Amino acid sequence: MQHFAAGGFEGASLRQIAADARTTHGLIRHHFGTKEDLWCAMVDDFVGQFEARHRPLLSKLGGADPVELLKGFVTNYIRVSAELPGVAKIIMNDCSEPGPRLDFVLERMMPIHKAIEPVFLAVQKRGLLRKHDPDSFFVFVVMLGAFPFALSGFTNAFYRKDITSKAGIRRHIDLVLRTLFDG
User: Fold this and answer.
1) Predicted TM-score of the model (pTM)
2) String of b and e for 57-68 (b: at least 16 CB within 10 Å)?
3) Could you tell me which residues are beta bridge partners of residue 129?
4) Which of 112, 127, 133, 130 lies closest to 61 in space, CA to CA?
5) Are 145 and 86 in contact (CB under 8 A)?
6) Tens of pLDDT, residues 72-99
7) Residue 91, CB-side half-sphere exposure with 13 Å CA sphere
8) Most CB contacts within 10 A, which of 82, 83, 127, 156?
9) Is 77 exposed, middle or buried (0-12, 13-18, 19+ CB in 10 A)?
C-alpha cells in the first residue's frame, strides 16, 4: 500500500515492492500475477477491512436507531481511514480519472454504500440530516473522513495538533459528525 499510495499505480515498481518486502519479483508475480493484480488485491484488502469494521453495524439494520447506526458508520470509516491513510492517497492518485482502477474501487465500495443507504434515508426522513442525497453523503464521508489523514501535514498545520493521535482522531470524528448532521 505504501508504494501505491506514494506514487500511484504508475509510480509503483514491483521490483521495489519485492525488495522492501524482502522477497523476489518472481515470487510476487507467482502469487499475485501482474502489478494490476497486486493493486487489485491491495484494494480488496482495504475494502475488506472497512467491511469487517462495519459488519457489526450492518447486522443491526432494521433493529437499531438509524441515527446511531449512521453515526457509527461515519465513526468507523474515519477510524479505519486514520489507520490506513494510504487509502485516500490511492484514491487521489489512481481514481481521479475514469478508467479500470476507478471502476474497480467503485465496484468494491458500492456494496458498502448501498448497505448504508436505507439507514441514510431513514435518518433523512426524520429531518435530522442536512439536505444531502445518499451519493453526496457517501462522497462527503469519504472525503471529509479520510483525506485529512492522507494529508496529515497539511491538516496538522491548521489544527495545530496531531490528527493521527487518539485525541486528534476523536476531534476529527466530532467535527465531521457536526458538519454532516443537524442537531
Assistant:
1) 0.87
2) bbeeeeeeebbe
3) 181
4) 112
5) no
6) 999 999 999 999 999 999 999 999 899 9
7) 20
8) 82
9) buried
Torsion-angle region of residue 62: left (phi > 0), alpha (psi -120 to 50) or beta? left
Q: How far is CA 105 from CA 42, 45, 80, 88, 145, in A?
A: 11, 11, 16, 12, 17
148 and 142 Cβ atoms separated by less than 8 Å: no
Please identify every stretch of the chain with a pLDDT value under 70, giving residue numbers as ranges.
Answer: 130, 182-183
Q: Where would I find the H helices in the chain?
A: 2-11, 14-20, 25-32, 35-58, 66-83, 86-94, 100-125, 134-150, 152-159, 166-180
Q: At a CB cut-off of 8 Å and minimum separation 6, what does 22 contact?
A: none
C-alpha cell read off for 106: 467503485
| Cα angle 14, 20, 23; round to 5 | 75
Topology given in CATH for the domain delimited by 39-180: Tetracycline Repressor; domain 2 (1.10.357)
In degrees, to the nearest 5, what angle opens at C-alpha 103 toward C-alphas 98 and 104?
140
